[in-house]
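ok new one. same drill as before - C-alpha coordinates go in, u give me an amino acid for every spot. 206 of them this time. try not to just spam alanines like last time pls lmao
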Protein backbone atom coordinates (compact mmCIF):
# COMPACT_ATOMS: atom_id res chain seq x y z
CA UNK A 1 0.00 0.00 0.00
CA UNK A 2 1.39 3.42 -0.96
CA UNK A 3 1.82 6.33 1.45
CA UNK A 4 -1.02 8.14 -0.31
CA UNK A 5 -3.34 5.15 0.12
CA UNK A 6 -2.47 4.92 3.82
CA UNK A 7 -3.15 8.64 4.23
CA UNK A 8 -6.53 8.35 2.49
CA UNK A 9 -7.49 5.40 4.71
CA UNK A 10 -6.60 7.39 7.83
CA UNK A 11 -8.65 10.36 6.59
CA UNK A 12 -11.67 8.19 5.84
CA UNK A 13 -11.43 6.53 9.28
CA UNK A 14 -11.03 9.94 10.92
CA UNK A 15 -14.18 11.26 9.27
CA UNK A 16 -16.21 8.39 10.73
CA UNK A 17 -15.50 9.64 14.24
CA UNK A 18 -18.29 11.53 16.04
CA UNK A 19 -18.56 15.29 15.96
CA UNK A 20 -18.41 16.64 19.52
CA UNK A 21 -19.90 19.92 20.70
CA UNK A 22 -17.48 22.39 22.28
CA UNK A 23 -19.96 24.58 24.13
CA UNK A 24 -19.88 22.79 27.50
CA UNK A 25 -16.14 22.24 27.69
CA UNK A 26 -14.26 19.16 26.57
CA UNK A 27 -14.06 15.64 27.97
CA UNK A 28 -10.71 14.91 29.58
CA UNK A 29 -8.97 12.10 27.72
CA UNK A 30 -5.43 10.78 27.41
CA UNK A 31 -3.38 10.38 24.28
CA UNK A 32 -2.13 12.04 21.13
CA UNK A 33 -3.53 12.10 17.63
CA UNK A 34 -5.33 13.95 14.88
CA UNK A 35 -8.13 16.49 15.25
CA UNK A 36 -10.20 18.92 13.23
CA UNK A 37 -12.57 21.78 14.05
CA UNK A 38 -15.81 22.36 12.13
CA UNK A 39 -18.32 25.18 11.88
CA UNK A 40 -21.93 24.11 12.39
CA UNK A 41 -24.02 27.25 12.57
CA UNK A 42 -25.66 30.14 10.74
CA UNK A 43 -24.58 33.29 12.56
CA UNK A 44 -21.06 33.56 11.08
CA UNK A 45 -21.67 34.41 7.42
CA UNK A 46 -18.03 33.85 6.52
CA UNK A 47 -18.20 30.12 7.29
CA UNK A 48 -21.90 29.44 6.80
CA UNK A 49 -21.41 27.66 3.43
CA UNK A 50 -19.36 24.98 5.23
CA UNK A 51 -21.89 24.31 7.97
CA UNK A 52 -23.52 21.29 6.32
CA UNK A 53 -20.36 19.82 4.82
CA UNK A 54 -17.60 17.72 6.35
CA UNK A 55 -15.08 20.47 5.65
CA UNK A 56 -12.99 21.51 8.67
CA UNK A 57 -12.01 25.11 9.29
CA UNK A 58 -8.87 23.87 11.01
CA UNK A 59 -6.84 20.67 11.14
CA UNK A 60 -4.10 19.86 13.62
CA UNK A 61 -2.22 17.19 15.47
CA UNK A 62 -0.94 16.62 18.98
CA UNK A 63 2.14 14.41 19.13
CA UNK A 64 3.23 11.97 21.81
CA UNK A 65 6.91 12.70 21.09
CA UNK A 66 9.13 15.63 20.22
CA UNK A 67 9.48 15.66 16.43
CA UNK A 68 13.04 17.01 16.67
CA UNK A 69 14.45 14.66 19.32
CA UNK A 70 12.10 11.68 19.21
CA UNK A 71 11.77 11.82 23.01
CA UNK A 72 8.40 10.89 24.50
CA UNK A 73 6.55 13.86 25.93
CA UNK A 74 5.70 13.84 29.62
CA UNK A 75 2.27 15.30 29.02
CA UNK A 76 -0.45 12.62 29.25
CA UNK A 77 -3.14 14.69 27.59
CA UNK A 78 -1.59 16.44 24.56
CA UNK A 79 -4.66 16.14 22.33
CA UNK A 80 -7.10 17.20 25.03
CA UNK A 81 -4.99 20.21 26.03
CA UNK A 82 -4.58 21.35 22.42
CA UNK A 83 -8.33 21.29 21.85
CA UNK A 84 -8.91 23.08 25.14
CA UNK A 85 -6.57 25.87 24.01
CA UNK A 86 -8.41 26.12 20.71
CA UNK A 87 -11.76 26.35 22.49
CA UNK A 88 -10.46 29.35 24.42
CA UNK A 89 -9.17 30.99 21.22
CA UNK A 90 -12.55 30.60 19.49
CA UNK A 91 -14.35 32.21 22.43
CA UNK A 92 -11.85 35.05 22.82
CA UNK A 93 -11.96 35.65 19.05
CA UNK A 94 -15.63 36.55 19.39
CA UNK A 95 -16.95 33.45 17.64
CA UNK A 96 -20.00 31.52 18.96
CA UNK A 97 -18.55 28.40 20.58
CA UNK A 98 -21.96 26.69 20.48
CA UNK A 99 -21.66 26.62 16.67
CA UNK A 100 -18.37 24.74 16.58
CA UNK A 101 -17.65 21.02 16.75
CA UNK A 102 -14.53 18.90 16.76
CA UNK A 103 -13.65 15.34 15.94
CA UNK A 104 -10.52 13.53 17.03
CA UNK A 105 -8.78 10.21 16.50
CA UNK A 106 -6.09 8.79 18.77
CA UNK A 107 -3.15 7.68 16.62
CA UNK A 108 0.59 7.00 16.80
CA UNK A 109 2.67 9.93 15.59
CA UNK A 110 3.58 8.46 12.20
CA UNK A 111 -0.09 7.98 11.29
CA UNK A 112 -1.04 11.34 12.76
CA UNK A 113 1.42 13.06 10.44
CA UNK A 114 0.01 11.29 7.39
CA UNK A 115 -3.57 12.05 8.39
CA UNK A 116 -2.92 15.71 9.04
CA UNK A 117 -1.17 16.11 5.71
CA UNK A 118 -4.00 14.33 3.90
CA UNK A 119 -6.70 16.52 5.45
CA UNK A 120 -4.71 19.70 4.85
CA UNK A 121 -4.06 18.89 1.20
CA UNK A 122 -7.57 17.56 0.58
CA UNK A 123 -9.58 20.31 2.26
CA UNK A 124 -7.18 23.27 2.50
CA UNK A 125 -8.84 24.31 5.80
CA UNK A 126 -9.35 28.05 5.89
CA UNK A 127 -7.63 28.60 9.25
CA UNK A 128 -4.61 26.62 8.07
CA UNK A 129 -4.33 28.18 4.63
CA UNK A 130 -5.95 31.62 4.42
CA UNK A 131 -6.02 32.71 8.08
CA UNK A 132 -2.89 31.21 9.67
CA UNK A 133 -2.13 32.02 13.28
CA UNK A 134 -5.08 30.35 15.01
CA UNK A 135 -2.95 27.50 16.33
CA UNK A 136 -0.01 29.63 17.41
CA UNK A 137 1.19 29.40 21.00
CA UNK A 138 1.72 32.42 23.22
CA UNK A 139 5.31 31.86 24.39
CA UNK A 140 7.22 34.68 26.03
CA UNK A 141 8.23 38.19 25.03
CA UNK A 142 9.65 37.27 21.62
CA UNK A 143 6.42 35.65 20.47
CA UNK A 144 4.31 38.46 21.89
CA UNK A 145 6.23 40.97 19.79
CA UNK A 146 5.44 39.07 16.60
CA UNK A 147 3.16 40.74 14.07
CA UNK A 148 -0.57 40.22 14.45
CA UNK A 149 -1.58 37.03 12.63
CA UNK A 150 -4.12 36.89 9.84
CA UNK A 151 -6.50 34.94 12.09
CA UNK A 152 -6.25 37.53 14.86
CA UNK A 153 -6.73 40.33 12.34
CA UNK A 154 -10.13 38.93 11.27
CA UNK A 155 -11.11 37.51 14.68
CA UNK A 156 -9.66 40.06 17.05
CA UNK A 157 -9.92 39.62 20.81
CA UNK A 158 -7.51 36.97 22.06
CA UNK A 159 -5.72 37.94 25.27
CA UNK A 160 -2.28 38.30 23.76
CA UNK A 161 -0.12 41.20 22.62
CA UNK A 162 1.15 41.87 19.11
CA UNK A 163 4.04 43.80 17.68
CA UNK A 164 1.92 45.45 15.03
CA UNK A 165 -0.87 45.09 12.47
CA UNK A 166 0.37 44.20 8.99
CA UNK A 167 -2.74 42.70 7.36
CA UNK A 168 -5.93 44.31 6.08
CA UNK A 169 -9.04 42.65 7.52
CA UNK A 170 -11.34 43.49 4.60
CA UNK A 171 -8.92 42.02 2.05
CA UNK A 172 -8.54 38.87 4.12
CA UNK A 173 -12.30 38.44 4.37
CA UNK A 174 -12.64 38.66 0.59
CA UNK A 175 -9.93 36.00 0.21
CA UNK A 176 -11.68 33.74 2.71
CA UNK A 177 -15.04 34.06 0.94
CA UNK A 178 -13.48 33.08 -2.40
CA UNK A 179 -11.61 30.21 -0.77
CA UNK A 180 -14.75 28.84 0.91
CA UNK A 181 -16.64 28.99 -2.37
CA UNK A 182 -13.90 26.90 -3.98
CA UNK A 183 -13.98 24.40 -1.11
CA UNK A 184 -17.71 23.92 -1.64
CA UNK A 185 -17.19 23.45 -5.39
CA UNK A 186 -14.47 20.84 -4.80
CA UNK A 187 -16.31 18.94 -2.07
CA UNK A 188 -17.29 15.93 -4.15
CA UNK A 189 -13.81 15.42 -5.58
CA UNK A 190 -11.97 14.17 -2.49
CA UNK A 191 -9.48 11.28 -2.84
CA UNK A 192 -11.38 9.30 -0.20
CA UNK A 193 -15.14 8.68 0.00
CA UNK A 194 -17.30 10.63 2.42
CA UNK A 195 -19.36 8.42 4.74
CA UNK A 196 -23.09 8.54 4.12
CA UNK A 197 -24.55 11.73 5.57
CA UNK A 198 -26.95 9.91 7.89
CA UNK A 199 -24.04 8.04 9.48
CA UNK A 200 -22.41 11.17 10.88
CA UNK A 201 -22.80 10.97 14.64
CA UNK A 202 -22.91 14.17 16.63
CA UNK A 203 -22.50 14.33 20.40
CA UNK A 204 -24.22 17.53 21.49
CA UNK A 205 -23.18 17.76 25.10
CA UNK A 206 -20.57 16.24 27.40
Amino acid sequence: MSTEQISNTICETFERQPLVAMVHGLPNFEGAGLYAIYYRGISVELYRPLSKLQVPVYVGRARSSNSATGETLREKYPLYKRLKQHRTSIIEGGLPINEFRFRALLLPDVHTDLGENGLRVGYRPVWNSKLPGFGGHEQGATTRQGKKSKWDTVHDGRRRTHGGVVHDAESLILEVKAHVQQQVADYNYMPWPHPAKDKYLELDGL
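The first strand starts at residue 19 and ends at 21. and btw The radius of gyration is 17 Å.
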